[in-house]
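Researcher: I'd like a candidate sequence for this fold, 186 residues long. If you have to choose between options at a position, lean toward the conservative one.
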């Protein structure tokens, strides 16, 4: 990973929206574990909305940095959600229930911000829900990215999105989706 990408992942800007179109599953796990580990070391909470296929590898990479995931999850500093399950709560027939999307994610971020000790802390978010949609529905994916922008702006949290380019070329990734983000890494 280049130094610029490392800096963006370790020190994301509040309300920064980072996109990582990737071709290698191991690389996305490395990026997410770097993003997560840096936040946890700073005392932040991390909300991971992961595809089931990545959950095990990402969790393994975070643990390899010396973090006790069970402890972090029990204290609310690490919250792990299944991207497909969460997406099914506000996507109906290809249409996003915008109110439900925003209210659900804002509530998740607020919950992460307040630890069991009642003290506020910064939060960073990783999400793969958009990756589950982009190949079949660019318009809905773009709208979800716009809604994410509203959520992260209102909550002042950074968001890292990952999109698998498996079976495609980087040039096939829609410019409209890139434009929804403040930073792109590769």
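Model: Candidate sequence:
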């Amino acid at each position: 990973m280049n130094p610029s990408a490392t800096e963006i992942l370790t020190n994301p800007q509040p309300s920064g929206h980072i996109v990582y179109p990737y071709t290698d599953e191991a690389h996305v796990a490395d990026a997410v574990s770097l993003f997560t580990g840096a936040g946890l070391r700073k005392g932040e909470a991390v909300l991971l909305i992961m595809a089931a296929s990545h959950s095990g590898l990402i969790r393994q990479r975070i643990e390899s940095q010396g973090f006790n995931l069970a402890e972090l999850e029990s204290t609310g500093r690490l919250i792990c959600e299944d991207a497909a399950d969460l997406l099914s709560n506000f996507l109906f027939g290809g249409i996003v229930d915008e109110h439900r999307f925003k209210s659900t994610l804002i509530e998740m971020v607020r919950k992460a911000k307040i630890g069991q000790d009642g003290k506020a802390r910064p939060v960073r978010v990783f999400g793969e829900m958009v990756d589950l949609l982009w190949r079949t529905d660019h318009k809905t994916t773009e709208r979800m990215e716009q809604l994410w922008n509203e959520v992260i702006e209102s909550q002042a949290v950074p968001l890292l999105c990952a999109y698998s380019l498996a079976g495609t070329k980087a040039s096939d990734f829609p410019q409209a989706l890139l434009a929804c983000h403040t930073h792109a890494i590769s």
